[in-house]
Amino acid sequence: MPQRGGGPRPRTSCPIRRGRPSVQRRPGIEPEQAFHLIAGRLFEVEFHHVDLGLGHDFADMPAAVLELGLQRTHDRLPVGEEQAFALVLTDMDRQLRFGPDTATARTTVYGTLPAALRWLTGRGPGTALSTSDGALPVLPPWR
C-alpha cells in the first residue's frame, strides 16, 4: 500500500508471526504457535494429495513444504532408543538424528528428502533408501 510521501510500505514480517499467538488445538495437546498451525494445514493438504493415489507424490511437493514436513515429522515421530537412527539426505546438505537425545544411532539411513518423508510417514516401504547395515529401522505408526 502506498504511504504518504510515495513508495510502497515495506512488509517486515507476516503479521501472525509478530505477536507469536498460540492456539490450543485440542484439550490435552500442548498449544502451538498459530503460524505452525497454518503451515501444518498446508503440509496436511499436500499429504492428502499423495494419499488420494492420483499420481501426486512427495517429489511433486514444493521444497518449502517438504522441509516443513521433515521438521514436523522429526519433532513428532516417537522413535524409541532401540530404533534410534541417523538420516542423511543425499539431495541436500542435511543430517538428522531420530530418537531420544541420549540414544546412539543404531544405523544411518541415506536418501532424498521426498523418499525419506514417504518412508517416515508410512506412505512407502523405503525401497528408494539405503542404510549403513542393510536394514531400515522399524518405525512407530505415523500419527
TrEMBL record:
Residues 1-29 are annotated as: Disordered. InterPro entries: SCP2_sterol-bd_dom_sf. This is Uncharacterized protein. It comes from Jatrophihabitans lederbergiae.
